[in-house]
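Example record for the data management plan.
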Amino acid sequence: MACCGKGNSEQAKKDAQISAMLDEDGKKMDAEVKLLLLGAGQSGKSTVAKQMKIIHMDGFSTEERKSYTSVICSNIVVSMRALLFAAKEMGNKTSKANKSAVARLLSDENEYFTGTISSETEMADDVKKLWADKGVQATYKRRSEFQLNDSAAYYFDAIERIATEGYIPTEQDVLRSRAKTTGIIET
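Corresponding structural encoding:
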């Protein structure tokens, strides 16, 4: 009989430990907030998730912000290309001085855009010149007539900062970045 009593005591301890673990896990789950965001593409679901991270979770670490560099640089190139294609379609001519910059940006050469924009390449200078071009500005004023990232002007205005050596995106840069999101984002 002593054996049976001893076994029940050990079983009771294990049961108490398991119950305590379940209670602790239950409390953690009660404190956890899960948010399901549904909506059409480009409706701002990822932006809301980024804003929640900035406001409620101490924002993005330096490493996380660095990981957005290529997305931001790609957004700049894609936006400028969209503006140039739209300018051509609308008949808005760019200045002759910017002809080579237009040709470089519209070319499909891989050497021109390597995933980053630095002050050592022509890319930053080309974007800066083209953003100041009257034909590009006239096209930008008609941006509601074609697909253009809403952050285009923000990035074009910040091209010198973005092109500096050792550029680390700010939280605002990250928040305004656009990348196709598929799947589930957990933070």
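Summary line stored alongside the record: Residues 131 and 137 are 7 Å apart (CA to CA).
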